[in-house]
Amino acid sequence: LVATAECTPPELQGVSDLSTVRRTVHHDSFGLAVLIYQILTEGKHPFHGIVETPQNLRTLPPGIPERVTQNLWPFSSSTNGKPRVKPPPGGCDFEMFPRELRALFLRAFDEGHFDPTRRPASLEFAKVLQLHVQDLTVCRRHPRHRHAPHLSTCPWCARRDATGVDSFPQ
Hints:
By secondary structure, this protein is mainly alpha-helical. Helix content is 35%, strand content 7%. The protein has helices at 25-40, 64-70, 99-114, 122-133, 155-163; strands at residues 50-52, 58-59, 84-86, 137-138, 146-147. The strands form two sheets. The protein has a three-stranded antiparallel beta sheet with strand order 2-1-3, with no helix packed on it. The chain has a two-stranded antiparallel sheet with strand order 4-5. Helix 1 (25-40) crosses helix 3 (99-114). The longest helix has 16 residues, at 25-40. The model has no long low-confidence stretch (mean pLDDT 88).
């Protein structure tokens, strides 16, 4: 009967009394996708970003629940007249994820926005994550850095070089 707004799917945002809603696995699948994204990005919410207005002015986007409701996330594949959302400074590059994982996030947040049954189930995430954990490449510059083998450079080194922060210090 309770929910965390940041993990609540768009169709339940704004519902004041969740006891009146028959919750389904598809509702939980949205929250799971948010949590997996946050684990992989050191706590960054998938709907965090900078909204660019039509006048090309950068503004702070509305709160996470409003962004979820409006499907405003930086890596959305659907534009449909929505404002453009850029990743936040220091945020991750969506391309750092393996193709199969990006596809699951797109299903969870884009397709699932319009059709909750399209959201990946927990088993789909588990299979993709298990498959890719085995294939992680060890960085040549820093033995604690691991990244997907499809990347030509280590994203953790790039982040450390840009920000001075190493998420995996020696």
